Amino acid sequence: MSLSRLFVPQSSSEPTSGPNALSVEAMFSQIMDVVLKSRAEIAELRHECTELRQANLSLERQVREGITSQIRSPHLGTPGFNTPAPSSPQLRAKSPFLHSSSIPTLAVPPSVHIASPLGDNTVISYPYGPNREIPGFYVVIPAGGAGTRLWPLSREGHPKFLLDVTLQGRSLIQATWDRLLPLTGAERLAVVAGPGHVKSISEQLPDLLQHNLFCEPGPKDSMAAIGLAAAILAQRDPDAVIGSFAADHMISGTDAFLSAVSEAVLVAQKGYLVTIGIAPSHPSTGFGYVRLGDKLGIPEAPNARLVSSFKEKPDARTAAAYIATGSYRWNAGMFVTKVTFLLDLLREYKPELAEGLMKVAAVWDVDEGQRNKVLEEVWPGLEKIAIDHAVAEPAALEGRVAVVPATFGWDDVGDFSSLAELLPAEANQPRILGDSGLVLTEQVAGGIVVPGSGRLVACLGVDDLVIVDMPDTLLVTTRARSQEVKRLVKKAKDSGWRRLL
């Protein structure tokens, strides 16, 4: 049926054909041509927008992590577990996935005025001098882990903090050391680790003073690790302020990070347990949250607020609701406080744990034999609990916990999906951790491939896969299920594959 018959009224007084009918048909034909052409143009624009959006996301990740191009390396014949020790923390070591790397040494800007990324106050001042060192401030790096979340890339003997998982030429703990060194110097930078990791940490951090490497006999979660360091440092310097920062987190934006830590130290000196709240970039269900309370009104720390409450990892709907309010920040597990205040909180909320840690600290620097004896007696009976649950949450209810909101980039690299976000890639292509020459793909989008065995990994027509090919183990899963890898580790252990863990 013609368009004219559909739209031209029919009556006995009007002809069904003629000049008018032809002109109407021609008009609608032109309209249809325009509509079809517009549809084609819109489809093309949508395609271009999609490509631009994907390219922008890739570029943002690269800029955020300081990566401007993917570093390619010749074939490595080893699993790449160890990052060889540098001659100094300021010299970049070889990556376990790269043949060589030329990353610039850590630079300390000469200015003491740093632009703040926090909305209300555009500029804050470092009162500690141009080298950023903060007198009386000690850094504690808890370095633990069972190597389950990035298995089989990470193992019990080589957890993720010992690996260069971002192709930057430094392991995560080396990057953490580099980041915090300007605030303290090596003399006031301590690491808490288990006996199985002490040797590797000493090799990767040759400037770490041995009396600042605190070996805990077994894992007791973050409260015992941080509490042990606090108790020891309190014996050495009762006026010390300590900051605890995990060994295996990724941080981008050094100026913003140092700005937030410096502000947290100023607040801690006023008698608070201070955490640093990360501005959430998406409604994550894998992180805990901090709810912002009233501003503290401290002139030297204008961004600091009370912590209204801590929230456990929420479901997706709750996380989205948190972000919509603008009053929540991710809880990154960074805490800054006076050692005496932390121990006072511990005595109040966990007196038995506090008593045990103080017994150990009392003999720590006296005699190694006596230290080991007390550790054998005390450590097995200590409560296994996180610092959040032990002191931060109950203290927040009494108005004794503060938060410094910050906007530097942060990720705890909790699974292969989050690791993939930190690596560069072409649009719609999988991320490659290692030698990209060992990976061939055809019609493959997203995902991450770790060619750790040295053999070729070929993928055809699969999207968002996680493929970790090590000399002794092959893992294949999806990015959506990557948080469940630790279930496989448990199953491997129960099935007698303990040697692969």
What is the total tally of β strands?
19
Largest sheet: 5 strands, mixed, barrel
Structural class: alpha/beta
* CATH architectural group of the largest domain: Alpha-Beta Complex
- Distance, first to last CA: 72 Å
Mean pLDDT: 80
Please report which band the strand proportion falls in: under 5%, 5-15%, 15-25%, 25-35%, 35-45% or over 45%. Answer: 15-25%
Which CATH class of the largest domain? Alpha Beta
* Total of helices: 13
> In percent, how helical is the residue content?
25-40%
Tell me the number of structural domains. Answer: 3
For the biggest β-sheet, the strand order reads: 8-11-9-10-12
Low-confidence segments, ≥5 residues, pLDDT <50?
1-17, 61-126
Tell me the CATH superfamily of the largest domain: Spore Coat Polysaccharide Biosynthesis Protein SpsA, Chain A
Shape: globular
